[in-house]
Sequence to fold (311 residues):
Amino acid sequence: MNRHTTVGQRWLHAPQHEFLRKALFQAHMWIGIALGLYIVMISVTGSAIVFRRELNIWLVPRTVPSTVGVRLTADALRAAAERVYPEHEIKTIREPRRPDRPVSISLEKDGQPSERLFDPYAGTDMGHAYPPTLRFVEWLVDLHDNLLAGTTGRFVNGLAGMLVTLLFVSGAVIWWPGRRRWRHSMTIGPPAKSRRFAWQLHSALGFWSFALLFVWAVTAVYFAFPEPFERVVDYFDPDLTDTVRPAEPVLLWLIQLHFGRFGGLWIRWLWALLGLLPAVLFISGFIVWWTRVVRRRLQAAMAVRQVTTAA
Fold:
């Protein structure tokens, strides 16, 4: 390609030699390395909490087996709980309004509180009101959303979301390999323990998942800093005095897309699987960086040391 070709033509045919692409490649690489552990954490926790609502439904009894018979009084329920948990102190008994719902009884033993659900008709223990599994899931939610640091963690998450957005956008730009080779960058070759396979995996997965990854990153910024997004929604609202916001459905759809809150249960399984893509992209990118940069430098340093020793 001669020197009279335009930048656009050179980018179309052989972008690898362009300064802008090289600069973006370096920015993409170092942002990815700097955020690596964060990306893996967000990826894994995001996949783990996809079934948050379903786990609440599956693990916490919502209705009693039968409402046939006489409903027990509060004193009778207290006596039933004391028989099952004689070493606990009964703190409170909360009866629901609906007759088919279990009663929640708060207990305490050695200063440790717990909450159990009881059948108000049979007086039987139905299980935890807040099982350990759900407590662990809520801990993962707090880690994913707030980094276990409240509003400060949410703020840091927003800043990290901006960097991850930049990471994905720069990756999309440097993905383009040239007019003759772009089809090869959309496919993955046979699995192999090599840098070439890691690069193919990184490149192809990044291409096919870019739209979803971009939505995840941008909505993560929205959760931390909603005001700019709300102002954009208001910009497209011709009448701010009414309750109709024409652009709001787009924002709500992006939020649903972030959590996979549409379709059936199979969507949740799919989102749990797709949620691991950022972790896979980091690992494959790290392998490429290690073999391309670190290993070469180590080999060069070892060669210099051998020459020095021999001399």
Notes: The chain has two domains: 7-55+138-304, 61-129. Strands lie at 89-94, 103-109, 112-118, 125-128.
